[in-house]
Amino acid sequence: MLKTTQWQTLNDCKMNSENFQALLRNEIPSIRISQFASIEECHKLVLAIEKVGFDFYRNVEPPIGRIGITQFEYRNRDKSGYFDAVRKATETYNKVTYLSFDPLKRLATILRQNVSSKVQIAYENEGYGHYFAGLIRQINIALLHLDFAGLDAPDWTIGNITSQLVWNVYIKAPSQGGICKVYNRQWQPEDEKYKIPGSYGYDSSLVANSEVKHNIPLTGDLVIFNSRNFHEVLPGIGERITISSFIGKMPGGDLVFWS
After folding, report:
1. What is the pLDDT of residues 67-91, one digit of tens each?
2. Known Pfam families for this protein (predicted)?
3. The pLDDT of residue 59
């Protein structure tokens, strides 16, 4: 059973090796890189995204628009379906970022400079190849949930991770609201009894007494938090567009990206 202790602070922390390791251990709530992207870079990305257009997840309410694929969609299916879709998803991601900049590459460079020289896209053996990383999403509301490969991908390479983070760069922030609430409550197997039937969400009573961090969306900022912690996105006024992926720490210490 995971032991939950109070976070050292409720403030955003700066990117450095010490804070990154603390985030992996769930000792702090978030790392924020202010002005990770310029307003001009974000504007160019929004124009590129509009040209490509969003798809919407099937059977997800409230609706979430996306460009790219997620392993989560394939968790109960043959792995080959996900990896067959990786090339097209990567090509589309590159088409969008070519017109501005590549957030994934920029963050990888920052992590190599500050945290570890071993940062790469996750790779599945047995001939499958690299994962996709760099999901583009339009989320106006997301139910209480968590993301952890130990639960979602136990038979995949990423299921071996020891800790999991998620980063989001806000390409377009709503004029009001759209806050991501992260709770100091990490998923444990017994929490599955709180799962809402027929939904990806969990009952809010699970986090009723938990410490909470409000991550405010600001255009151009990048925020990283521990995705094993339960989190949700509150409604906002105006579009909320992010680019994101997970960062997993492998048993040997390597950092890997995937979506």
Report:
1. 999 999 898 888 999 999 999 999 9
2. WelO5
3. 65
The two tokens of residue 172 are 């377009």
First to last CA, the chain: 27
Q: Considering just the CA atoms, what is the radius of gyration of the chain in Å?
A: 17
Decide if 224 contacts 170 (C-beta within 8 A): no
pLDDT band (50, 70, 90) for residue 117:
confident
Q: What is the DSSP string of 20-60?
A: HHHHHTTSSS-EEETTSS-HHHHHHHHHHHHHH--EE-TT-
Measured CA to CA, the distance from residue 17 to residue 158 in angstroms comes to 22
Q: Is 220 left (phi over 0), alpha (psi -120 to 50) or beta?
A: left
Query: 163-179: per-residue pLDDT in tens?
Result: 999 999 999 999 999 99
Who contacts 35 (Cβ-Cβ below 8 Å, separation ≥6)? Answer: 220, 221
Indicate if the pLDDT at residue 1 is higher than 60. Answer: no
Contacts 24+ apart (CB under 8 A), 59-63: 60/200, 61/199, 62/140, 62/141, 62/142, 62/143
- 117 contact partners, CB below 8 Å, separation of at least 6: none
Domains in the chain: ranges and CATH: 17-258 (2.60.120.620)
